[in-house]
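One such given next:

>
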Amino acid sequence: MASENFSEAHRQVIKEAIKEAELNTSGEIRVHLENHCKTENVLDRASQVFAMLKMHQTEQRNGVLVYMAVKDHKFAIIGDAGINAKVEEDFWNITKDKMLEHFKNGDLVEGLKTGILCAGERLSEFFPYQSDDSNELSDDISFGS
């Protein structure tokens, strides 16, 4: 399982980054880690996981999934329909580039943290935090095999 690559301390760093990012936005961020991408195209697999985690069930359709196949060295960031309707086509490229800098240096945790915080910051422009905002999706990391 991908979980063996991330200590409890690593998981806590990632979970805290999600909480911090969600303080800026009503958007909901999840992280899914697995060893191998089960499809040829990483975006297809990220979409499958997005559906499996029922991330489309947020009120504003503003869920974001950070997906990583650790051993295959693949990752993707995808957003739900509410986000895609408001943002430019290459919206996630800035976030992906920042993450990739860390991944190239072998620092997966810092890359994930950077991506999560960047996603929250970028989403705040389109989906600002609301005083009555509720945490609609778990901040826990999900793991696949």
User: Anything to note?
Assistant: Strands lie at 28-34, 63-69, 74-79, 142-143. The longest strand covers residues 28-34. The helical segments are 8-22, 42-52, 81-84, 93-104, 108-124. The CA atoms of residues 69 and 144 lie 9 Å apart.
